[in-house]
Design a protein that fits this description.
It is a single chain. With about 350 residues, the protein is an alpha/beta fold. The protein has 3 domains: about 55 residues, OB fold (Dihydrolipoamide Acetyltransferase, E2P) (Beta Barrel), CATH 2.40.50.140; about 160 residues, 3-Layer(aba) Sandwich (Rossmann fold); about 60 residues, Probable gtpase engc, domain 3 (Ribonucleotide Reductase Protein R1, domain 1), CATH 1.10.40. The chain contains 10 helices and 13 strands. The strands form 3 sheets. A 6-stranded mixed beta sheet has the order 10-9-8-11-13-12, with helices on both faces. The protein has a 5-stranded mixed β-barrel with strand order 1-2-3-5-4. It has a two-stranded antiparallel sheet with strand order 6-7. The longest helix is centred in the first third of the chain and has 30 residues. The relative contact order is 0.10. It binds guanosine-5'-diphosphate (GDP), magnesium ion (MG) and zinc ion. Guanosine-5'-diphosphate (GDP) binds next to α5.
């Protein structure tokens, strides 16, 4: 249908409606402003965003008290984990007046395919894998790349070690030794027999962590052991993810009784890696880094080209066969996505 031209009168009406709308919105802002800041604002104090509700955030002060806060419009977005400066206003509500620099950022695409931060200041990405569902290298390496490019330290956690047997043990021993050689932490747990969970608890003290991994590897079980009072929450998250609404649930920060914090949401647990490009994948393979830039050809794809520094490192054992195969597989799968899109 062709666009209808508006006559003068219609155009005037539309601009009037828009003007009224803007005025109403401004009035609302003014009212919030008056309610909050009608009196004196309290002194500036530090806090951390622990949850998000539309136009407000829940901020925890340094004494562990929580306050609902409005955000000044000039702050840009705030996400769970953000360190902020805020001031107490009327009605026991606050105003966030500044956002401190983020140490790390976890991002994922929203419904429109735009990258958005979902959580900040995460120290550890605990990548949970298991013998069942079987842990493929490709998937582990995708998570590792995501952690590396987000500036978050990955921790590999092999759960369900009670399921290790003569058939699958050798595979996981090789996997663990490969990753430990690169310098990654690898811990082994069983959420059923409690094995290794003490070691995990100690590791997480004084850190902010997220748990990621394929569905069925035991994330909910591990988290409910670490957060015994949050059973309802874990159940709630599980129920929501079944309805398919999981990506809209915002992240929340929880305190482990044994020390350390968890930022969790179903969307974080199952986040995908579709937003990477080839150079990021290369950068995300940490042990490849020292060889990048030394290939004979600038546009080397590290496949069959002569004088390839990555292939040389592979031959000399500085890069493992498994990681190299996985690198190629991930790069090829990025191409597939591009062709399809
Ligand atoms: N044998 C064994 N089963 C486990 C372990 N941890 C979790 N499970 C089982 O694995 C299944 C998936 O666990 P769940 O925590 O829901 O996984 P999630 O999808 O990653 O949250 C459940 O049937 C659990 O009982 C473990 O350490 N050993
Ligand atoms: Mg679960
Ligand atoms: Zn090369």
């Amino acid at each position: 249908m062709a666009k209808r031209k508006l006559n003068k009168r219609q155009a005037w009406r539309i601009s009037k409606i828009q003007q009224e709308r803007t005025e109403r919105a401004n009035k609302k802002e003014d009212k919030i402003h008056d309610d909050l800041e009608g009196g004196e604002l309290g002194p500036e104090q530090n806090g951390q965003v622990i949850s998000h509700f539309g136009t407000q955030v829940l901020v925890e002060d340094t004494n562990g008290e929580q306050k609902r806060c409005y955000m000044r419009a000039n702050l840009g977005g705030l996400v769970t984990g953000d360190q902020v400066a805020w001031r107490l206003g009327n009605n026991d509500q606050g105003v966030v007046v500044a956002k401190h620099e983020r140490q790390s950022e976890l991002q994922r695409p929203n419904m429109h395919g735009e990258l958005k931060s979902v959580a900040a200041n995460i120290d550890y990405m605990v990548i949970v894998v298991a013998p069942e569902p079987h842990a493929h290298r490709g998937l582990i390496d995708r998570y590792l790349v995501a952690a590396e490019i987000s500036g978050i330290e990955p921790v590999l956690c092999l759960n369900k070690i009670d399921l290790l047997n003569d058939d699958n043990k050798a595979h996981f021993e090789l996997l663990i030794s490969d990753y430990q050689k690169i310098g990654y932490r690898f811990i082994q747990t069983s959420a059923i027999t409690d094995g290794g969970l003490e070691e995990l608890k100690v590791l997480l003290i004084d850190r902010i962590s997220v748990f990621v991994g394929q569905s069925g590897v035991g994330k909910s079980h591990i988290i409910s052991t670490l957060l015994p009072d949050e059973d309802i929450r874990v159940g709630g998250l599980r129920a929501q993810s079944k309805t398919g609404r999981h990506t809209t649930t915002t992240a929340t920060l929880f305190h482990f009784p044994s020390g350390g914090d968890l930022i969790d949401s179903p969307g974080i647990r199952e986040f995908g890696l579709w937003h990477m490009d080839e150079s990021q994948v290369l950068e995300g393979f940490k042990e490849f880094k020292e060889f990048i830039g030394y290939c004979k050809f600038r546009d080397c794809k590290h496949l069959a080209e002569p004088g390839c520094a990555i292939k040389k490192a592979l031959k000399e054992g500085a890069i493992s066969e498994g990681r190299f195969a996985s690198f190629q597989q991930i790069v090829n799968s990025l191409d597939e996505v591009e062709v399809r899109g």
